[in-house]
Amino acid sequence: MAERKSDTTVATNRKAHHDYFIEETVEAGVVLQGTEVKSLRLGLANLTDSYAIVKNGEMFLLNANISVYPQGNLANHEPLRTRKLLLHKAEIVKLTWKMTQKGFTLIPLKIYFLRGRAKVLIGLAKGKKSFDKRDTIKEKESKREVERVMKDRNR
Fold it and tell me: Quick one: which of 120, 51, 52, 57 has its CA closest to 94?
């Protein structure tokens, strides 16, 4: 039997960790059309400014841009269409409760393939203020400086 690849990341939301505190993550499946899968395999996806909502007990992904498949025809998909996310009912209820109680939002962190299935990593996030962003940048710079000094010292 042929050995399968592990997860292959298609797109990441790099601004998410800069703009939000990520409290919890959940893996969800995505309902896709045929040409969307082909576009994802080519890496034609963008998650910036996308988010997830809960409507009628179901979760949906909005503003996730999966570009049109270049070799597609009239059956190509709409790039910014709303996509349904596949989660267990208990997970949806738990996330909905946390969103309403603490003022969190749901944002996609990355899209990847796991055993041939498209998955989205959803983060339960709380927005950062500008001073929080500055503190995060200072911490990263100080860590880099310490690593640089330790590297030079170990030579």
Answer: 57
How do beta strands 58-62 and 83-86 pair?
Answer: antiparallel
pTM over 0.90: no
Among 39, 4, 35, 1, residue whose Cα is nearest residue 114: 4
Residue 1 is assigned to a structural domain of this protein: no
Mean pLDDT, rounded, of the chain: 86
CATH number for the domain spanning 12: value is: 2.40.280.10
Residue 53 lies in a domain: yes
Number of domains in the chain: 1
The domain containing residue 16 runs over which residues? 8-128
pLDDT at 6: 57
What is the tens place of the pLDDT at every residue in 15-45? 888 788 888 999 999 998 888 888 888 888 8
* Degrees, nearest 5: CA angle 117-120-123: 155
CA distance 111 to 64: 10
**For residue 126, what are the β-bridge partners?**
21
Joined together, the tokens standing for residue 79 give: 């790039």
